[in-house]
Each structure stands twice: as structure tokens, then as C-alpha cells.
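P.,

For your records, the input lines for the assembly:
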Amino acid sequence: MNRLEQIIPTGIIAAVGIWVAWVSYTQQPSEAFLFPRIFSGVFVALSLWTLIEAILGKGAKGSGLSVSMVKNFAPGVIIMVIYLFWAAKFFGFYTATTVTFFILLSLYDPASHNELKSWGKRALITVCFIAVMYGLFAKLLRVYTPREIFF
Amino acid sequence: MDFIFYFGDVFTFTSIALLLAGTFFGLILGATPGLSPTMAVALAIPFTFKLDPAQGLILLGALYTSTVAGGAVSAILLKIPGAPANIATTLDGHQMAKNGQGARALQLSFLASLVGGVFGILVLIFMVKPLANVALFFGYSHYFWLAILGVTIIGSLGSKSVVKGLLSGCIGLWLATIGFDDILGTQRFIFHPALGGGIHIIAALIGIFAIPQVIEMFAKGRQKVNMEAIEVEKHSISQAASEITRNPRALGIGTAVGTIIGLIPGIGGQIAGLVAYDQSQKFSPDKAKYGTGHPEGLIAAESANNAMVGPSLVPLLTLGIPGSPTAAVLLGGLIIHGIFPGTDLFDNHPEVAWTFINSMLIGQVVMCLFGLYIAGLAARIAQVPQSVMAAIVLGLALFGSYSVQTSMGDVYVMGALGIAMYFLERYGFSAAPLVLGLILGPIAESNFVTGSTIAAAQNGTFIYFFTGWLNFILIGLVVASIAYSAWSEISAKKGATA
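C-alpha cells returned:
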């Protein structure tokens, strides 16, 4: 794992720690920030420690990310972000879930993409999953989910 | 002996149905590689909202017990541990399956799990009430230190890096303070409208435990499920039962090691299985047979990882310190029903506490019976492609987090925390201390603020929080847990360079 790969996450956390401490010590009323003031000091100290360790090349913990891993998960994560942060609300939960589920199956399914049978299998799994989700959440738990453009 | 009076509450139609459903799905989820017991319990919490607290906990407890035991199915038949707790099970379990003894290995595994699990729950039953009474001596300062101890002990003992573990705990404490301050109503750290109501613990738990596993499955790409699946032949259960009774040494070592390790917060089932396997080998006259498909190794590992389930709940139910990440999720399940561990739980809600504990005792038997008869089915389901599992977990995470408060804000928080957690884990940060900080943060803060107010009217904050034998003990434990872990880490580094 290269040094820069360690410096970026530890640097972000150190920046968050410093921001938390700054807000805790500058915002009023001070009584509301009494507890954040205590732990933010420890937060900053530990985050700077990990940052310095990363800069010195001593903090290599965790398995990091490889290029092939990023290539593999990037399409899935992009679809997941669109689904969670936009599509679910915009299209309605069940429509967005159906589309996302089918896309993810198609993207990551190791079965052949040239056979009609495997596409039919994916469609069937998607329909079954949505039926179970509808039964569980709409009928059993009676959760009223956003139904904007579609269902 | 209070628990006896509440046995009847487990035998209602709803409770039994939840116990059976939790055990069935738990075995299947446990057998599925990549799906951890913690994630299974976190995803199930939204289903408990409509249930009364005891029934909700029955479902979560059954899932917890059976996912740990279910992990043995894929460990034995596929050589892939369903959960980290089953790593030691693969060593002899899979070899037995390869030698044409798959059914025997599964039967021994579930019977050993039953013995270990029942013993662990009995330890829980007999330790929990006296220890809960200790909590009567606790004041605000002690609860503050106890909450800090909960974060530091998991942050230091349960993490690969002490500094990163403690830092994860600090991040959790910070996340817990986001939203409106309870006493003055002041806005704190609200940098997005979705955070206005603070971070809901259940949405956070789902995100932190489910989303990283979804991304992990994506990261494997279009990987074919290339597992060395083994067909299960027929084997007599009574023969397996008599074989278990002929191996008291391995069973005793596994059960004792699992129980002791379960009582120590932050250690976990993975260590229990491996330590039990190692100790059983040391005391065995057939040392050389270990690793070649020797039943003793399998019995020791499986009895240990189930024996730790009950004791891991002792610090949770008595003092509010979860002994494992899954116990932390169970704490979240208690808190959303307005129930707090300790004397409150046993004095004001004894029916919840004892029904839950009794259901776990009965759940061990149900788990064993289900395991003996549906292990083959669970192994087939475990071979479902990761793409399907990832999509199912993602869908459940969306619906589950939304149903907490029917708020899109919770979905955004779940997604953002989950994605952030994946990257943090890749760089050595741990989910468990972060979650502990998030759960115990409000408890630490409320006790600190109330304690400070009392201290201001008495002898001052320093004397209130830093003097008295109970404060000394708790502060000592905080320091000792950090010092011990730091010493272990430095020793390991020196050992690696030598």
C-alpha cells in the first residue's frame, strides 16, 4: 500500500477532527458543547497521530484498495448512490428497487449474458424479490413508501 | 430463579413463530459467506418495530444464535466460513466432509453448538441478575466512565490498531452529538438538512454493517461461485450424539474457552473458536490428527463459538457494555423500545429480559434441530451468487432504514455512513468502536452533564468524576484496556521485525 493511499483518508479524518474541535470551542452556548469539547480534544490528538504515522509511512493498517477492486465496485457503487440518494425518492421505492435490482444482477451475475434463459432467470428473481419486499413492507409492516412518479 | 416464571411467555403462538422464523433465516444467512451475524441482526431490527419489545428481542436473539451456528455449514461443506467465528471450523470440518463424512461433521457441529450454547445461556441466566444489582451502586459519574469504558475496550481490544480503534470510537461519539442538544435545544454539527433530527441509531447500524458488505461483494466482480461443494451422505444422528458424549475433553475445553472469552467485551467468536481449537489440540493425545478431519477439533471450535453467545450478553444486559458488535446492535434494538440495560431492565421490564433470555435457551434446541435437518438446504442457498445477495441486502437496507421513521433523511444517513465505513475499514478503522461511540455517546453525555451540574453544587467536577473507589476502578479499567492493547501491538511489531 503506498504512502499517499494512507495519507488521504487519515488527512480527511484529521480535517474532520479539527473542524469538530473548532466548532465545539467557538459555538455558543458553551454548555451545549461541553461534551463535544472533551472528546474533540482526543479526536484531534488521535487523528493527528494517525496522519503523522501515515506521512512517516508507519501507519499501514488495513488492506487498502487495488485498481481491480475499484474497477469492480465502481459501477455498483455508482448505481447504489443513484438509487439511494435520488432514484428511490424520484421514481418511487418499488420501481427504483426493481430497476436497480435487475441492473445489479445483470452487471455482477457470472452467468452468461448471451443466453435468453439467464436473462429470464434474472427477471424472475427480480419479480420474486419485489413481491417479497412488497409483502413484507407494504402489507406486513404497513410502511408507506414514497410514490412519486411511479409506484 | 426468576427466569422460570417467564418460560410460559416464550410459548405463545407469535413468540414461537418468531423463534422458528429467526432460526430458519438465521441458519441460511449464517451459511451464506459474506453475510455476518451483525448485519443479519441489524437488517432485522426494522421488523421488530411493530412487535412488543420481548417478541422483537426473541427474533433478534434467534437470528444471532443461529447465524453463528449456521456459519459452520459453509465452513464444513464449502470451506468458506459463514462468519469469522467459523474459521477454526474449516480446519477439521471441511477435511471430514472431503473424507466423505459431511453429514457426520454437520451433526457433530450442531450438537457441539447446542451443548456450548446451552451452557453459555445458563451462565448468562445465573450471572446476569447479581451483576445487574451491582449497577445499583452506580451514580452519574460511574455511568459516564462505564460508557467511556465501553468505547475504549472495544476500540482497543477489538481493533488491529489501538489508535485507529480509539479514533473510530471518537468518530462515533461525534456522530452521536449531531442534531439538537437535548437540554438547551442548540443545533450541533448540522451541516445537512437530513441531519436535523440527529443520526438515528438503527439507520446508522444498517448502513455501517450492511453497505460495506454490499460493496465488498461488488468488489469481487463477476466472480463465479467456485466453491468445492460436497454432497452430504446419510449419517445416523444418534451415532453423532453418542460420539459427542465420547469427546468430553474437546467439548469441555471448547465450552469453557468460549464462555470465558464471551464474558470479556471486545474479543469475539473468531478468537474463541481458534483458542479452543488450539487448546484442545494441546491437551489431546492425538495432536497429529488435528487438521486431517479429526472430530475433536471441530467439536472444540463449534462448542466455543456458540458458548460465547450467552456470556457476550452479560456485560450488555447488566451494565450496558456490549461484548461484541452484534451485542451492540441488540443494544440498539433495546434502546429503540425505550428499555435500558441494568437494573431498569430487570426491575421494570423483567418480562422482556427473561423472555428474551429463555427464548435464547429454547432457541439453542431449535437451532440444533433445524441445523440437523436443513443443513443441506442451507448449503445450497449459500451458493447463491454474490450479485443476488448484494442486491437483496441493498434493497433491505433501503426499505429498512426508511421504515425507521418513514424519512428519506435516514436513508441518506444510512447510505453515506455505509459508504464511508467501507473506505474506513479498508484503511484499518473498525466499525465496532464507531458503533459503540454512537450508541453510548448519548448515555455518556447525559450522565456527564447531569454529573457536572451536581458536582458544581458540591465539591467540583474533578472530585465528583475522579475520586471514589468505583470511579478509580472504572478509570483503571479504561487505562488498563488501552495500555494492554498498546503493549500487545508494540510486542507484535517487535516480534515481526525480529
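Two observations worth noting. The mean pLDDT of chain A is 88. DSSP finds five helices and no strands in chain A.

Regards
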